[in-house]
C-alpha cells in the first residue's frame, strides 16, 4: 500500500517564496548603478533642502525652477530606484524598463544642469545658495555617470526591435516533393 501512495504523490513542488525585499543585482539594476542611483537621490535631496533654506531671493524664477527640478529628481529617482530594485516593476505593466530608465535619467540630468546654471547665474550669493548650486552640479554629475554606466553596460535601448523568429514551420522533405510534383 505504501508503494502505491508514493507513485501517486505530486511530482511538482512549489518554489519557496523569496523573503528578499530588495533584489540587487537584478535584471534592470546592478550593484554599481544601485550605488549611483542612491547618490543621485542623496545629492538631489541635499540640493532641494539647501534651496528650501534660502530665505530671500533677488530673482526668484531660477530659484523656483531649481526647486522644482531638485524635488522632482529626488522623488522620481526614489520611485525608480524602488521599482527597479524590487519586484514591483513586474506589477506596473511596463516592459521597456531600460528605455524608461535611460530616458528619465537623461531628461533629469539635462534639467538639473540647466536649472543649476540658471540658479548659479542669478542668485544672492549667499553660502546656502552656493552650496545648493554645488549639490545641483554634483547631482547632475551623478546622473551623467549613471547614463555613461548604463550605455557602457547595456547599450542604447531605443529603436531596438525584439528579434522575432518566423512562425513558419519547416516542411518535411516528403511533403515538399509532393508539392513540387503537384500532388498534395
TrEMBL record:
Give the way it sits in the membrane: Multi-pass membrane protein
Residues spanning the membrane: 34-50, 62-84, 96-121, 133-152
Please list the residue ranges annotated as the MARVEL domain: 28-155
* Gene Ontology cellular-component terms listed: membrane
Location(s) in or outside the cell = Membrane
Which portions of the chain have biased composition (kind: Basic and acidic residues)? Answer: 174-184
InterPro entries, from UniProt?
Marvel, MARVEL-CKLF_proteins
- Keywords on record: Membrane, Transmembrane, Transmembrane helix
Q: Name one Pfam family in it.
A: MARVEL
Q: Region annotation Disordered: residue ranges?
A: 163-184
User: PANTHER family, alphabetically?
Assistant: CKLF-LIKE MARVEL TRANSMEMBRANE DOMAIN-CONTAINING PROTEIN 6, MARVEL-CONTAINING POTENTIAL LIPID RAFT-ASSOCIATED PROTEIN
| Protein name, as recorded | MARVEL domain-containing protein
Recorded source organism is Synaphobranchus kaupii (Kaup's arrowtooth eel)
Q: What is the lineage of its organism?
A: Eukaryota, Metazoa, Chordata, Craniata, Vertebrata
Amino acid at each position: 500500500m505504501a508503494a502505491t501512495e508514493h507513485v501517486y504523490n505530486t511530482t511538482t513542488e512549489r518554489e519557496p517564496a523569496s523573503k528578499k525585499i530588495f533584489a540587487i543585482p537584478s535584471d534592470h539594476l546592478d550593484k554599481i548603478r544601485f550605488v549611483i542611483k542612491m547618490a543621485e537621490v542623496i545629492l538631489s535631496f541635499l540640493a532641494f533642502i539647501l534651496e528650501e533654506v534660502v530665505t530671500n531671493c533677488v530673482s526668484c524664477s531660477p530659484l523656483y525652477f531649481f526647486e522644482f527640478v531638485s524635488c522632482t529628481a529626488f522623488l522620481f529617482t526614489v520611485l525608480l530606484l524602488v521599482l527597479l530594485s524590487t519586484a514591483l516593476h513586474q506589477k506596473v505593466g511596463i516592459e521597456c524598463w531600460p528605455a524608461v530608465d535611460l530616458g528619465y535619467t537623461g531628461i533629469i540630468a539635462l534639467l538639473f544642469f540647466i536649472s543649476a546654471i540658471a540658479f548659479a547665474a542669478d542668485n544672492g550669493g549667499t553660502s546656502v545658495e552656493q552650496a545648493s548650486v554645488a549639490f545641483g552640479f554634483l547631482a547632475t554629475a551623478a546622473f551623467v555617470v549613471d547614463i555613461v554606466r548604463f550605455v557602457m553596460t547595456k547599450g542604447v535601448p531605443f529603436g531596438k526591435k525584439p528579434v522575432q523568429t518566423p512562425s513558419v514551420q519547416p516542411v518535411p522533405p516528403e511533403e515538399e516533393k509532393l508539392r513540387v510534383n503537384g500532388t498534395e
